Amino acid sequence: MVKRKSSEGQEQESSRGIPLPIQTFLWRQTSAFLRPKLGKQYEASCVSFERVLVENKLHGLSPALSEAIQSISRWELVQAALPHVLHCTATLLSNRNKLGHQDKLGVAETKLLHTLHWMLLEAPQDCSNDRFGGDRGSSWGGSSSAFIHQAENQGSPGHPRPSTTNDDEENNTRKFFQNSMATVELFVFLFAPLVHRIKESDLTFRLASGLVIWQPMWEHRQPEVSAFNALVKPVRNIVTGLRAKAVCSSSLTCVGKDFADWHWTEIK
Fold first, then answer.
1. By the number of CB atoms within 10 A of the CB, which of 18, 73, 116, 231 ranks highest?
2. Which has the closest alpha carbon to 54: 5, 114, 6?
3. Is residue 202 part of a domain?
4. Considering Cα of 80, then 85, then 86, then 88, what sign does the dihedral take?
5. Reduced to 3 states, what is the DSSP secondary structure of residue 163?
């Protein structure tokens, strides 16, 4: 397993740029899908995506690329590569009939879909384990369906409320391993028109986990997985008291030397 250098904190990690060798590698793999006519070059790109992203193997890569990958966290690599994988997968699905794979997905398509499913469903857990070590007992663990955000029953009998420190740590972890809104929008933009290019018969063996993504989309529903959910701040209800003389209206203004002398007068 590749060991990456640790960073000072989540904020610094998220704000760092992606090293140039990694960007070059990703564009080189994507270029095979941008040609007017798909050739056999895309098959090698599918293998490279799966090998580097899913299997986390750097053997055979250039020293500069290997060093660049080890200089960032695995989650940063996944986030940088996800838009590329989305575009490449959408290109293969849109050309499925031209490639002669109407009835059954080819080997390359299977590898790329498997990579996409891993990035959307399992990457948060795997990257969290790489970052913090082990399964820390969080709700990221388990199967793909375990990534669904669930409301915590805190303070009820049999469910003691955890400490504030643990709450903050868990929330920070979830917030860190979230996809950006731009990534979610890109997924919807690319795959909403192509959702019926994927059949239920395609999602077998290695691709079976992807059913939690595509089944809701076939039914025009949002997939209930963490990749399509984001933590939001609760709406605060701020209750303020009214002073006897401080009656606010659009036609009133406050005058006075200091707060104690304030009084309201009507604007003519």
1. 116
2. 114
3. yes
4. positive
5. coil
pLDDT tens for the chain, 268 residues long, are 555 554 445 445 555 689 999 999 999 999 999 988 888 889 999 999 999 999 999 988 999 999 999 999 999 999 999 999 999 999 999 999 888 888 889 899 999 999 999 999 999 888 877 665 554 434 443 344 333 333 334 444 444 545 555 565 555 555 566 778 888 899 999 999 999 999 999 998 899 999 999 999 999 998 988 877 765 566 666 776 666 555 555 555 555 555 455 555 555 5
Instruction: Answer yes or no: is 138 within a domain.
Output: yes
In a domain? residue 240: no
Q: In sequence order, what are the beta bridge partners of 2?
A: none
Give the domain extent around 195: 10-150+162-228
**Is the sign of the CA dihedral 213, 208, 58, 27 positive or negative?**
negative
In a domain, 73, yes or no: yes
What's the residue count for the chain?
268
Beta-bridge partners for 178: none
User: CB within 8 A of 15, min separation 6: which ones?
Assistant: none
Total domain count, the chain:
1
Beta strands in the chain (DSSP E): 252-255, 263-266
